[in-house]
Amino acid sequence: MRDGTCAETARWRGAWAALALCAFVGIAACQKAGPTYDPSTDEGQINELMATMGDVSSSQSLAEQLFEKSSVPKPAERVKYGKYFFQVVDKNVTPESATLKVNVTANQGGAVTEKEWTAVKSDGKWKLKSAPLP
User: Fold this and answer.
1) Phi/psi class of residue 127: alpha, beta or left (left: φ > 0; alpha: ψ in -120 to 50)?
2) pLDDT (tens digit, 9 = 90+) per residue, 89-119?
């Protein structure tokens, strides 16, 4: 009888070990790393710029980093960017400028509006020249 109990305990330990392994692998596989961009390329730098747009509404200094000096939105306009999600659906990049087709979607849902944004390369960094909202 004792051998049966030990065998049964060993089976349960094996089952629990297998379950724990599956859970670990499942969690590791489901964890989503953020997108990675090659900052040595123009497209990578533009993608990083766009990935940061969601935070521009809460920081004037960030807006000054992301927008060309003459295009930095005033605080009242800057906070409006926090009401939207942005997704680049197409881009045309030259060495000094870029035209971006951006889907702009309200955070609360609603229609997707496609807008054309422009960026320029200034002192080796990409900055937005125009980023109209709906």
Assistant:
1) beta
2) 999 999 999 999 999 999 888 789 999 999 9
Q: Which residues, at least 6 apart from 115, have a Cβ–Cβ distance to it below 8 Å?
A: 101, 102, 104, 131, 132, 133, 134
What span, in angstroms and rounded, lies between the C-alpha atoms of 7 and 55?
Answer: 58
Residue 30, pLDDT above cutoff 50: no
pTM over 0.90: no
CA distances from 44 to 27, 31, 123 (A): 29, 23, 16
* Residue where the block lists tokens 């629990």: 16
E strands of the chain, at which residues? 84-93, 97-106, 112-122, 125-130
